[in-house]
Structures are given as structure tokens and as C-alpha cells.
Amino acid sequence: MNIGLDIADWSSPQSFLVTSISAPRVLLGGRLAGPATVVVDGGVVAEVLDGASPEADIALDSGVLAPGLVDIQTNGCFGVDFITASEQDWRRVSDRLPSTGVTAFQPTYITAPLETLLAGVDRAAAVFGSLRGAQAMGVHLEGPFLSPLRPGVHDPRYLVAPTPEGVGAIVATLTAERTRGVVTMVTLAPELEGGPEAVRRLSEAGVRVSLGHTDALAEQVIAAADQGATLVTHIFNAQRPLNHREPGVPGAALYDTRFTCGLIADLHHVAPEICTLVWRAAGGRVALVTDAIAAAGMPPGEYELSGIKVHLGEDGVPRDAAGVIGGSALTLDRAVRNMVGIGLDEASVLVAATRVPADALGRSDLGRIEAGARADLVWFDDGYHPLRTWVAGRSVFEAGSGAQAPDGSHRLAREHQPA
User: Fold this and answer.
1) What string of pLDDT tens digits covers the 419 residues of the chain?
2) 327 is known to lie in a ligand binding site
3) DSSP readout, 275-342?
4) Whole-model pTM?
5) 69-360: same fold as 7-66+368-398?
6) Peptide bond before 241: cis, by omega within 30 degrees of 0?
7) Number of Cβ atoms within 10 Å of the Cβ of 100
8) Which helix (H) or strand (E) holds 45?
């Protein structure tokens, strides 16, 4: 289900003008091409033309025009923890994320009592439709059906097996009028009692099932794919490790092409050398994620992750009182720069932050610049710092002026305005 922005409801059709943007380099079909001109009509891409049209409404003379970035695992940012976010908090995050190039995000709730998680789903459902910056794609429940052997910073008190009743409570939200389709992804440990049935039931209900915080053997990971699991949450972190005789979770995920591998590319969770190996082994199946917490975009200090106290140090890594890494302070544009910086192909890195995560959630309208896709666009400079961001054809961020007010005043105009 398309959670968040309904283009037809954003404003009257008359407020969307046919708009064209030319750029010297554009991410098209998984490669950097150009020059090209992108034509936008009614909030979607109408067509892509070869060459820089002299009649383009906006002419970019440098950098890269890419689809808006898509973050499918983020617990919070800019001082906001999503599980406790108020309506004002949600809007603040939506308005500020475009400054990082992100135009679509899947908020993540980590382990808590199931009733707490579902209450958070209900609050999110009430506000998603009013967001005017980056759009929420749905809620990712990272727990509570996780292994006590691989908890990470998750509170072990709340880890439970996926009983039919617990899974049923999540499935019930998908058809309830207020929360219909809001839960889009669930991370679980498939080796737990009831795990295989939970994977099958959630998958059949339309939820993307990801494997994470799991001590599963490779054969259990592959069996979960047979039941419908399609992702692995933050590969190499909080899971049975790779071994030459027991491939564990990462080995199975890299081997089995049915899996999309979430990768936290802050170079702390996963070493640069391993990031490169993941890229080589699972080309086209790597989704860059931030796993960001409230500390992202904020100075060093104390923050909360689902009620857990986490300290962000000068090294930029959040840790709990025991020193365990608790999420990240990463932004997705930084993840792009990190991967390009270690020598990975620029186009493949951009695809990993756009099309791959969008496709992992079945969102063929996001993460690409092609006819029919939502006109979510980001203009990067040559160092991959965002200069301007558009959501459904509306300019929502411009470098030097902060996140734009979502009132339409910065909508792309038809008059020519060279950048």
C-alpha cells in the first residue's frame, strides 16, 4: 500500500505545472548518463529527454541529478525517536530529511512490549498523511520476535517468540481502518519457535519479512526465504556470523539471491573491506540504510532509543552504557559519500540508496527517474552533498536556506531559473 503522500490530495491539480530540469549527469536505468532533461507533470516524471533542453525550466550546470534517497531503516533523527514522536516531531523530521537527500523513509520501532509497538503504529497512521517533506513509507517493526542470543541494544525483557496471537495482532492492523497497510516490514529471528509460520503468515499478508537479531543457521535462513522472507536486517550485525563451515546469516544472504541485504555504511558497523566484499557478492541486492537514531544530525550527547539511554561520542558512534553500538548517527547522503569514498562505483552506490530499497518494499514508484515514477529528485554536487531536493515535483530543500516550508511557495516554477 502507498503510505503517505497521495499526490492527488497534496493540492489541486492546477498547482502542479509541467516542469523540466536539465542536468549534465542523471542517474537513469542504473547508470550515470547525460546530459538529460527530466520532465515533471502532476507530481510524477512524465518523460526523460536526451540532452539538455534549451527550454528547461531549471538548468543545472554541474553535479548529479538522482532519484530521492530511500531509507528503509531509521529509528529517528534530529533529536526525534520515532516510537515516542509527537505530530510536531514527525513533521520536523519530514521537513529536515530532504536536507540529506532523503525523500522517502520507513520509520523503525525496535523491541518493546507489542502493545507499545502497536500504539506507535496507531499514532504514526494518524500523521503520515499530513507530512509535506520526506514521505513515510510505512512502519518497520524490528522486534519483538528476536533472538535473546543476538539482542544488540534491544531490551531482552521484551524479546518473545512469534506466537500466533502476537503475529495475529500485527496482521490485524493491516486491515483495520485506521492503520490499514501501515506496518510494511517486520524483522524477526526465524529459528525461534513459531518462526517459520510467522514468516509465512506475515508474507502472505503483504508484509516484507526481514531476518535480523538472529542466531539462525544458514539452512534456517534459506528455509525462511522459502516461506517468503526477502531481506536481511543490517547484514553482519547482531546475527550468527560467517564461518567457512557454517555460512551463518551473512553467508546465506550473500549466497541466496532472493535476499536484499541492508547495509549500515557508516564504516563502524561494517569495515570498509567487508562493505566491498558485500558489494561484490551481492551486486544489485545491497540496500544502504542508516539505522539512525535520534542522535543523527545532532551534536554529541545523551539520546534515547526506545527508552534506552545512548551516548553519542566525539567519534560519532552511539553506544549504550555497556558500550554496545546502538543504531547510528548516520545520514543516507553520508552513507553514499562513504561508499563512493572507499572506491565503489558511483552509479551502483546511488542505486543502493534509491532503487534497491524502494524495490525491497515493492515501491516501483520510488527510487528511479522514469516515466510514471513520483518526481522525487535530489541534486547533488560532485562530492555528493545535496544542493536541492524535490518531493513529487515540489522543492522542499535548497542548500543555504534550510528545509523549505511545505506550503508550495518553493514549487518548481515554469520560468527559467539557472541554478
Assistant:
1) 555 555 544 444 444 455 899 999 999 999 999 899 999 999 999 999 999 999 999 999 999 999 999 999 999 999 999 999 999 999 999 999 999 999 999 999 999 999 999 999 999 999 999 999 999 999 999 999 999 999 999 999 999 999 999 999 999 999 999 999 999 999 999 999 999 999 999 999 999 999 999 999 999 999 999 999 999 999 999 999 999 999 999 999 999 999 999 999 999 999 999 999 999 999 999 999 999 999 999 999 999 888 889 999 999 999 999 999 999 999 999 999 999 999 999 999 999 999 999 999 999 999 999 999 999 999 999 999 999 999 999 999 999 754 343 333 333 433 343 33
2) yes
3) HHHHHHHSTT-EEEE--B-TTTTS-SEEEEETTEEEEE-TTS-EE-TTS-B-SB---HHHHHHHHHHT
4) 0.92
5) no
6) no
7) 29
8) strand 44-50
Residue owning grid cell 553482519 = 236
- Catalytic residue numbers read 291
CATH architecture of 7-66+368-398: Roll (2.30)
The answer to whether 326 is a known ligand-binding residue is yes
How many residues appear in the chain? 419
- Domain limits of the chain? 7-66+368-398, 69-360
Q: Is 322 annotated as a binding residue?
A: no
Q: What is the rounded CA–CA span in Å between residue 390 and residue 379?
A: 9
Q: Which helix (H) or strand (E) holds 196?
A: helix 195-204
Residue 337 marked as a ligand binder: no
Of the candidate CATH numbers 2.60.40.1760, 3.40.50.720, 3.20.20.140, 1.20.1070.10, the domain formed by 69-360 belongs to 3.20.20.140
